[in-house]
Amino acid sequence: MAELKTLKQLVYNADEKFGNEVFIREYIKKQFRETSFHEFRMKCDSIAVWIQKHFTEKTHIALVGATSMEYLSAWFGVQCSCNVSVPLDTNNNPENIADEIFRSDSKMVFLDDKHVKDIPLFKERCPQVEYYVHLQKPEEGMLFLGDMISEGEGQTPSGDVTENDLAAILFTSGTTGISKGVMLSHGNFIDNTTCCPEDDFHGMSVLTVLPIHHVFCFTIDILHSLWCGMTVCVNDSLFHIAKNLKLFQPEYCTFVPMIASTILGKMQQAAKRIPFKKMVAHEVFGKKLVAIFSGGAYLSPDIIKGYKDFGIDIAQGYGMTECSPRICTGVVNCPKPDSVGRIVNGCEVKTVDGEIWVRSKSVMQGYYKNPEETANTLTEDGWLKTGDLGHKDDDGYLYITGRKKNLIILSNGENVSPEEIENKFASFRAIKEIVVYDENQVITAQIFPDPDYKSKDIQAEIRKKVDEVNDTFQPAKRIVNVIFRDKEFVKTASRKIIRARINE
């Protein structure tokens, strides 16, 4: 097959190369359900044929649901029909989902049982939508994905797209203002999928844990598996991770630091009862695990070391939705654990006034119908302003020190990155959440203690840890005030703390 340039070609190439090998493995009603690469391509074709019969012009199609064979078939069915996928956060509130369906100009919506009750609201707010499709079962007043597949069975969609055509609009859940629709082309996705070609993952499996609308999950777990011939094992709930790790026994997992930290804490508790740490690791992850990849937020070197104590490698990467997402790839057994990984092939990185700028074929086309924000984020010569502060070294590793918009500038001219201080507490079990900020030119920390942490005096433990961390910083960066909270911080739909609302 010719060089890959589009997501449709990626689906067809996977069928051609891997055929009857298992692409998706699920555990439903106490039974395994497996879908081969060939079966998957056929389902995508059938859905694409239906879409092309009902839409003659380029169409945006939204998807709201959890990871499943049906969801992925619909996602790539849209691609095989040469149209645009709009994956939305299924855990967002219905009003925000309706807003993003409307602002993305979506004319068709795939959804699962969770949001059937919200259809009256969607119809009221989104009059442009022509079809609502239930992913799993027939439902009165809706189309059913299974019927669409049956109707188009054995048929092949027409047409094709180019690498420069829009493939998807993904909404960022930013911590300030309204969400922005990131426009990613076929070329963006393909470049990011293939930017680390040196490893052979064929025949291995990955447990996909993160929400499917996140580009980190979608590119690393799904697109990469189509390209390499891996099996995607579907974790059906964040509450079932431990059970599904035992059930599927994958070679790889992708986590965010919060999940990695929680599981490490449980293993460390178990190790108090079972002296052999490798036995604990096998009990949690099975015996096939090769490595864990982490992204989405900062991963403390202490957590990396904690996993190493159990014989497990956890590799930290770095990226953002606007870059499809990888800027750095996680390196197994990384020689520089305080970095966020090695810059991927084909990606240029520079710093401008301390801010990291990147340029590559993975960088977005812009924000949908938002030229002002696009101009603020992309330069005319293609550089993406990440908003992150940091630097790279001579070996191609990148280091992040904080967010530019969160930088604290004190009256004496000192610049303080709150994330640099917060990250010092990332592996401290007594603290569940911490936000550092400037209050009247004084470095202040609001802290939500972990309610599950067992302690005679948790506040005293935390204050002692604050003193220890302060000793590692010069006076300007030391926490002066500590405020204890009795509830979690207000967060975005993707569980990022909204700093503008820390006093709520």
The end-to-end span amounts to 56 Å
Radius of gyration from CA coordinates? 23 Å
The shape is: globular
CATH topology of the domain at 34-161: Rossmann fold
CATH class of the domain at 34-161, anyone?
Answer: Alpha Beta
Q: What is the CATH architecture descriptor of the domain at 34-161?
A: 3-Layer(aba) Sandwich
- Tally the beta strands: 27
Mean pLDDT: 94
Runs in which pLDDT lies below 50 for 5 or more consecutive residues are: none
| Tally of separate helices | 15
Query: Strands of the biggest beta sheet: in what spatial order?
Result: 2-1-11-10-12-13-14
Helical coverage, percent range = 25-40%
Biggest β-sheet, characterized?
7 strands, mixed
What percentage of the residues does DSSP assign to strands (E)? 25-35%
Q: SS-based structural class?
A: alpha/beta
Core attributes:
504 residues; alpha/beta; GMP Synthetase, Chain A, domain 3; 15 helices; 27 strands; globular
Outline the structure in words:
- The protein is α/β, with parallel strands linked by helices and 504 residues long.
- Among the domains are: 34-161, Rossmann fold (3-Layer(aba) Sandwich), CATH 3.40.50; 407-501, ANL, C-terminal domain (GMP Synthetase, Chain A, domain 3, 2-Layer Sandwich).
- The strands form 7 sheets. A 7-stranded mixed β-sheet has the order 2-1-11-10-12-13-14, with helices on both faces. A 5-stranded parallel β-sheet has the order 4-3-5-6-7, with helices on both faces. It has a 4-stranded antiparallel β-sheet with strand order 18-19-21-22.
- A hairpin with a 5-residue loop joins strand 21 and strand 22.
- Helix 1 (7-18) packs antiparallel against helix 2 (37-54) and helix 7 (186-193) crosses helix 8.
